[in-house]
Write a structure and sequence with these properties.
heterodimer, A: 257 residues, alpha/beta, TIM Barrel, 3-stranded parallel β-sheet, 9 helices, 38% helix, B: 349 residues, 13 helices
C-alpha cells in the first residue's frame, strides 16, 4: 500500500519539502535539493527577484523537476502577505503559495488572526494556499473549512532545530484533518522527521537542518531516508509502547466464564 | 556569574550574563565565545552575509561633533547631491548588484529634508528592495511620511549613552538634545519602520558600560516594538582628517571589539550584527566567519563618491576599499553566500 500524497490535485511521491534559505551557495542548495528527492521547493519572495528568471537562486532550481512554492516570509500582516502573493503570481503564474505571516521578527511565530484573514482572501482569488501555523487544532480546522490545500503546523520555532515540541497538539491536528498535514519548522534531525511521519503527518518541510549541516547533501539524503522510514512505519502500524512487562501469571487467570 | 555558564548554559539576554561575558576575565575564554557565536550565527542566519552600500547625500552639517569630519567647523569642501545626482550614485550601486541601500546625510535640514527624501525614495524604489536612512533624528510624523514613501529601516547611534560625556561632545546645536536622540528609534518604530539599527561611537566613553546601556536600550525596543528587528553596529573611532585624537581616551583594541561583538551575539542570537568598511579587510573577513550578518562593501563615504572621485571630504577613512565583487568572492571562498536581496519593496504599499 503505497498511498500517494495529493495536494490540490497534484500527486507527490516524495513527502519531504525543502526550503532554500541559509545555504552557503546556490550550487550546494541545488545539489541538496536533488539529494533529498523532494518534488516541492519553497522560496522566500523577499530573497529573489521573482520577475527575473536570471535571478541566481531561481536559476539554480530546475522548474521541470520541482514545484516552486513561493512563500511570504517577512510579511507581518494579511495586507503585506496578500500583496506579495498577488505580485508573485502576476510575475510567475505560479498559483501555489506558502502563506507565512510572522509579525515577530525573532521567533518568527505565525499570527493566527492575520494568517486566517489572508488565507480567506487568497483562497477566494484562486490561490492554492499552504498556511504556516502554530500547532493550533482549532485554527487548523478553520483554515481547512475555508479551503486551504494543507495545514502546516510548526514543530518548534523556525530554525531552532528543537524537534517536535508541539507533538500533542500536532496529534490532534492530524486526527482531525481532512487536508494533508505538513509538519513545518523546527525539525532539526532526521529522527524528528521520522517521528512526525510515524505520528501520521503527511509530509515534512525542512530547511535549516539541511542547509546548515556540515555536509548538506549528505544530510538531505539522511532526511529522505528518515521520511520514507517514518512513513513506512506509520503504514506498518506500531503495536504501541508498553510501559510494563506482561505478568507471566496473570491476575485474572482464574476467570473461567 | 560563572563564565562557562554564561557561554554555554544561559540563553538570551540578561544584564548579568552580558556583564560576565564583557568582563576582562572573560577574554581568556574568547575562543570558546567565538565558537559558540559562530554556531549560533550559522544556525540562525545560515551561511549567508547580506550586503548593502551607503549613499552619502550631503556632508553639510550644523553640528559640532569633534569626532566627525563633517562637523560644521571644518573648512572643507561641502557637497549636496541633487535628486538626479543621488539617482546616478544609486544606478552605480544597482549595477554592482546592491538591492539594499542606506541613505546618509549630515544634519542639513534646509536641503536634505522630508520632501527631498520622499522624492528620492520614490525614484529609488524601482531599483532597490530595501532603503534605510542614517540621518538626523526626525519626528514620528516625519518618519510616517518616509515609511509611506518606501523607507523601511533606520540606523542612528547614540554616540555615547553617558549623559556627561554626551554633553561634552555635543555642546551646542540640535544634537545637544540627548533625549530627543535617544527616543529616535522608538519614534521610527511607532511609524512602522522594520529595521532599527543601534550603536554607540566606540571611543567616546568606557566601552563596557556603554555596551550595557546599548543592550538595555535594545532590549526595551525589542519588547516594546516587537514587530521591528534590532541590529547592532560597532562604529569605532578611526583616524580621520581634522579629528583630535587627544580627545578620545576610550579607543579599544581589536580583542576588546571582538569580545563586545561576541557578547552581543551570545545574548541576542537573532539580531543582525553589522560591520561597515570602517574596519580593515582582514578583520572584516574574520568576523564574517564568526558573527557578522550584514556588511557594507565598496563604500564611498563622501557625497558623489561613486560617480566623481575625490570631489568632497569623506566622513571616515574607508579601511576596506575592495569592490563589492571582491567582497562577495572573499565570502564565497569562506563558504558564505553574499545575499544582495533579502527584502521586497512590495512589503510597503
Amino acid at each position: 500500500m503505497k498511498d500517494k500524497l495529493i495536494i490540490a490535485g497534484k500527486e507527490f511521491s516524495s513527502r519531504l519539502f525543502i526550503g532554500t534559505g541559509k545555504y552557503s551557495s546556490n550550487k550546494i542548495m541545488a545539489q541538496s535539493i536533488e539529494a533529498s528527492g523532494t518534488e516541492m521547493v519553497t522560496v522566500a519572495l523577499r530573497r529573489v527577484d521573482i520577475q527575473n528568471p536570471q535571478d541566481n537562486m531561481l536559476a539554480a532550481i530546475d522548474r521541470q523537476k520541482y514545484l516552486l512554492l513561493p512563500n511570504t516570509s517577512g510579511a507581518r500582516n494579511a495586507d503585506e502577505a496578500v500583496r506579495l502573493a498577488r505580485l508573485a503570481r502576476a510575475a510567475t503564474e505560479i498559483n501555489w503559495l506558502k502563506l507565512e505571516v510572522t509579525p515577530d521578527p525573532y521567533y518568527l511565530l505565525p499570527d493566527p488572526i492575520e494568517t486566517l484573514k489572508a488565507a480567506e482572501i487568497l483562497v477566494k482569488e484562486g490561490f492554492v494556499v499552504l498556511p504556516y501555523i502554530n500547532a493550533d487544532p482549532v485554527l487548523a480546522k478553520k483554515l481547512q473549512d475555508i479551503g486551504t490545500a494543507t495545514v502546516m503546523p510548526l514543530a518548534s520555532p523556525i530554525g531552532s532545530n528543537q524537534g517536535l515540541k508541539t507533538k500533542s497538539a500536532i496529534e490532534i491536528i492530524i486526527s482531525q484533518a481532512t487536508v494533508p498535514v505538513v509538519v513545518d519548522a523546527g525539525i532539526g534531525m532526521p529522527s524528528h522527521a521520522a517521528e512526525a511521519m510515524e505520528m501520521g503527518a503527511d509530509a515534512v518541510l525542512v530547511n535549516t537542518a539541511i542547509a546548515t549541516a556540515n555536509d548538506p547533501i549528505k544530510m538531505a539524503q539522511a532526511f529522505k531516508k528518515a521520511v520514507q522510514a517514518g512513513k513506512e512505519a506509520f503504514e506498518a502500524g506500531s503495536a504501541g509502547i508498553k510501559n510494563q512487562a506482561d505478568a507471566s501469571s496473570p491476575l485474572t487467570g482464574f476467570l473461567r466464564d | 556569574m560563572n563564565i562557562q555558564k554564561a557561554i554555554y548554559n544561559d540563553s538570551g539576554y540578561s544584564p548579568e550574563r552580558l556583564e560576565t561575558l564583557l568582563a576582562a576575565d572573560a577574554q581568556k575564554h574568547l575562543e570558546q565565545m567565538a565558537q559558540k557565536a559562530r554556531q549560533i550565527t550559522r544556525q540562525r542566519f545560515g551561511n549567508t552575509i547580506q550586503l548593502y552600500a551607503p549613499i552619502y547625500v550631503s556632508n553639510f552639517c550644523v553640528n559640532h561633533c569633534p569626532y566627525c569630519a563633517f562637523n560644521c567647523k571644518s573648512k572643507l569642501p561641502r557637497t549636496r547631491l541633487t535628486i538626479e545626482q543621488a539617482c546616478k550614485e544609486a544606478d552605480i550601486l544597482a549595477s554592482e548588484g546592491f538591492r539594499h541601500i542606506l541613505l546618509v546625510s549630515g544634519e542639513d535640514k534646509k536641503f536634505i529634508n522630508i520632501p527631498y527624501l520622499a522624492e528620492l525614495t520614490q525614484k529609488l524604489r524601482e531599483k532597490f528592495s530595501s532603503i534605510s536612512i542614517e540621518i538626523y533624528p526626525l519626528s514620528k510624523e516625519e518618519y510616517e511620511i518616509l515609511f509611506a514613501a518606501g523607507i523601511d529601516g533606520i540606523a542612528i547611534y547614540q554616540e555615547t549613552y553617558d549623559r556627561t560625556d554626551y554633553a561634552k561632545f555635543h555642546k551646542t546645536g540640535p544634537k545637544s538634545d540627548y533625549d530627543w536622540r535617544l527616543d529616535t528609534l522608538s519614534r521610527a518604530a511607532q511609524a512602522g519602520f522594520r529595521s532599527l539599527g543601534l550603536g554607540f561611537l566606540i571611543g567616546l566613553s568606557d566601552w563596557r558600560t556603554q555596551t550595557l546601556a546599548l543592550t538595555e536600550h535594545a532590549n526595551m525596543l525589542m519588547k516594546k516594538y516587537w514587530q521591528a528587528k534590532v541590529s547592532f553596529s560597532f562604529p569605532r573611532m578611526r583616524p580621520a582628517e581634522n579629528v583630535d585624537k587627544e580627545l578620545f581616551k576610550h579607543m579599544i583594541s581589536d580583542t576588546e571589539l571582538v569580545q563586545m561583538m561576541l557578547s552581543l551575539r551570545l545574548c541576542f542570537p537573532d539580531s543582525e550584527i553589522v560591520m561597515s568598511t570602517r574596519e580593515l579587510s582582514g578583520f572584516r573577513d574574520n568576523m564574517a566567519k564568526i558573527c557578522v550578518t550584514r556588511m557594507s562593501a565598496g563604500s564611498k563615504t563622501n557625497p558623489g563618491g561613486y560617480t566623481v572621485e575625490e570631489a568632497s571630504l569623506e566622513q571616515f577613512e574607508v579601511a576596506d576599499d575592495r569592490t563589492p565583487a571582491q567582497v562577495s568572492s572573499m565570502l564565497k571562498s569562506n563558504g558564505l553566500e553574499a545575499v544582495w536581496k533579502d527584502w521586497d519593496k512590495a512589503f510597503i504599499k
